[in-house]
Write a structure and sequence with these properties.
Largest sheet: 8 strands, mixed
CATH architecture of the largest domain: 3-Layer(aba) Sandwich
Strand order of the largest sheet: 12-14-13-15-16-17-18-19
Oligomer: single chain
Distance between the termini: 83 Å
Number of strands: 19
CATH topology of the largest domain: Uracil-DNA Glycosylase, subunit E
Number of helices: 16
Number of domains: 4
Length: 535
Amino acid sequence: MSVVSAPAAIITAAIAAPRRAIPDDVLIAWLTDCISAKVAVTLVFARHRCALYRHDAPDDLVLVDPEQTHISLLKQLAKARMLSRLETELGELDAATAAAPAWTARTIQATLADIAIWWKARKALFDPGRGKPLGDRAIQRVWHDAGGRCMYRGCGDDLGVTPLTERLAGTAYLAHIVAADKDGPRGDALLSTKLADDPENIMLMCDKHHRLIDRIAEKEYPTEALRIMRVEHQNTVRKLLEALKYPDTKAIALFANIANATTWPSETGMRMAMINRGLKPMPEFDYPVSRIQRDDRSSIGAWGSILHDHEPDLRMLVSRFSNVRTASGATEVLAIFPLHLVPLLILGGRIVGQARRVEVFQFNRDLQSWDFARGAAASPTGTFFVDHFRKNASKTVLLSIELSAEFAESALAPELASMLDENSIQWIRIRARAPHQNVIAHFEDLQQFTRVAREAVNLVQDVLHADHVHLIGVAPASTLFAFGQVLQAGNHCQYTIYDRPDQKKPFRAAITIDGNVVSDAVAVGETPRVVINLR
């Protein structure tokens, strides 16, 4: 074999990957190089599929999807008597990875007329008008099922900006799953005619993906795979359109990079979770108190710095939620997506409160989804419960939320451990029968937790008449936000919320919330504490 020139080397690399038609620009370079080097080429075709190989490199059989620009180059080769043609069976071409030795005797010198006839026949195979013509009702049905978007999985391009057309020059295409012609992509001797005008056999597609499934990588998109793709898209469109009947819902995402790991789930996932819960997402998402800074909570005075960093965000939230009515007078539904530091989750819940409908979502790390697992059932009553673990006459309470794991006394801050040793603090535990990371597996689980949290808060306030609560949370983010919601503005004692940035060290006091303000819990030297009004 002779030395392969640079463009041909690119082709060689391309066909080393899973076999599909090479890109247009690479094909132009390859044909141009053949013309320049005066190397003869053979065009091999079978029905709608075709390939090329250079006579000096027959082992490099290149699958191609020629366009008009390539045809002019093929005609140049034919005019120079440097182009041969070979029509073969589809199975033979599909199985070939190199030019078969027997092909040489079967090739015919290609003329300009041969190329014109072949090109016309090839275009006809991809003409949606071949077979039964599509009526207006069928076209409208496809358009409706697609919602005016490309039905290729993961694309969804809006195809309604130009008129729907069946012509190849258009922007939106009606792509047959089983080809309208038996010799077309995924064609069938019986089904092609039968399904030619069936809307369920047709997908609305953009130019790029129409060409991909029919001409570039047809073998990667068999009939059943495309049918599944169409059904998935149609079901998604139906679900999204059904959401027009749902209440307008504002999404608020409380995200932070925790332990220097990036936390930023997709809006698409959040929107679908809202729709699945019967909510209509409003266009814009809010990201208040988002924290992308380096996680330096182990440093002295860290929580004073964190409150200082987010003081404008927190003041804006307080101002927003002091008025529970929207401008139109209707109560605004809120969807909360929490993945943040424990103290700010509880503070966020305290600010948002329960004066309006608030739907709190729980991120499932195993599923990487804001939706609960399909088929999950609500946990039985009593899964969460209040345990008054240590009783005495003290007005100071340690309140621990232990849902993800049981809380170990060895993780207590030294001052709290001393108070327990001296029996000068009461201990109330909100517990789960079987603590684990995904303990909130159904939206009713969160409702059950909220009832139990309210029971614990009532015990603290109305029975024990506590004046100070030390709060530690080892629980899913949704429950920590929901607990904050239970704390009524202006009507609860002082809560000091603890944080544990390093699992090797004990919990440390982070922020303090009373009925009116939030501040950092620990003074550092002469630096004044950051104090933010919550009313």
